[in-house]
Amino acid sequence: SGTSSYYCRFTAAVGTIDSTPAQPLSSTLLYCVIPNWGATLPATVTTYSLRRSTFAMDIVVSGPASPSFTFTQVWSNSSATEGPATGGTSIELTAAGLVVTEQQYYCTFTTPTLSLKSLPVQPESTVRVRCLSPEWGHLGPAGPVTLGLQQRDLAVPGPVFSFMIHAVVTGMASSLPTSIALVGSAFSTAVQYTCSFAIGSAVMTSAGTASSTSAMTCAIPDWGSQYPAAETTLLVKL
Fold first, then answer.
1. Cα–Cα–Cα angle for 138, 139, 144, nearest 5°?
2. What is the value of pTM for the model shown?
3. Residue 56 — pLDDT band, cuts 50, 70, 90?
4. Which residue among 80, 119, 149, 237 has its CA within the 20 to 30 Å range from the CA of 229?
5. % of the chain surpassing 90 pLDDT
6. Residue 64 pLDDT > 90, yes or no?
7. 75: helix, coil or strand?
8. How many CB atoms lie within 10 A of CB 203?
């Protein structure tokens, strides 16, 4: 009627949240919209009741004894979509219902054959957790991995989210008259890399070949056939 409305109340030890007012569809059917519990409270099992509010009072509608409803935690988005294989990329996950007292959440990075977790982290709030990408290192070549979230050993439901791991050159191991040996992370032995030797507008390229995920060799081009001797910058297209 115009002087009363129905709503559902969800209650747990951590708090209570009411749904928005709901109008009956018939004398035997009413729908309550589930409130956004996880925006302020951690995921948990609640009891719920149907209530009727009037100007004068709030009435509990008779029903089953302590029916339960479970709010589960979930994550929905990531602030980062890519990072170097050396790790250290800050990744902020948007979520709902996280347990802020829990200190063992992990970001997970998986492929069909490999899996790696970040260091354990504690959520900043029920809707936000931040982790650093781990060092992919010598585990495998660069490419897309599936980003996920775990609380201890349990996966937190979320989207199928792709995170791109990029190969990184970290240094030069040695230099020979015909080649330069480079070290790094996440090289692929199946990829033909391009090594560019440049100074100003003068550029010569050669093939780069990886022998492992951490070792690559760039052939030294015949620079002297086109340009005078000079100190050049080496760039590798990864």
1. 115
2. 0.85
3. low
4. 237
5. 79
6. no
7. strand
8. 14
